Predict the 3D structure of the following.
Amino acid sequence: MSLADFQRALTDLTASPALCRAVRRDATMLGQLYPLTRLEQDRLADIAASNGMEANCMIYRANRLAPVALNCPQLCAALGDDLNRLISAYWYAEPTTNVHFLVETERFCAFLAGRDDLNPAARAALTREHARVCERLAASAARSGEDAFSGVRSTSRA
């Protein structure tokens, strides 16, 4: 038992509505998945069963979807009903997110590029938008050492 184990379990619950549903059905599974005390298991089971946890899961998923939706709108449209299945598969394969929108989007695009179940329109949109994301990511990396505020700072003090 450690704080880190409790936090990892809570994080996993937040990232996985399926895990929350499973814990709601059988809270004892927490003890099988994580080295927790009985009190910690009970607390996590209560959290998983709360209405607030549903909101937490939605917010988490929205935060992971936002970079993809903003950077690859044509891809999302071309995927249509397959978007939910494919992004869920990506999140399962890559449970750790990256807060840099372009990095997270590039990772999703790379995940899709390795799949053979995309429709032709989605494959074409992926090719176009993945290239654009990679270009923007390279430009961002090239500018990473620049002082973004150098042009607005005063060089002299009054």
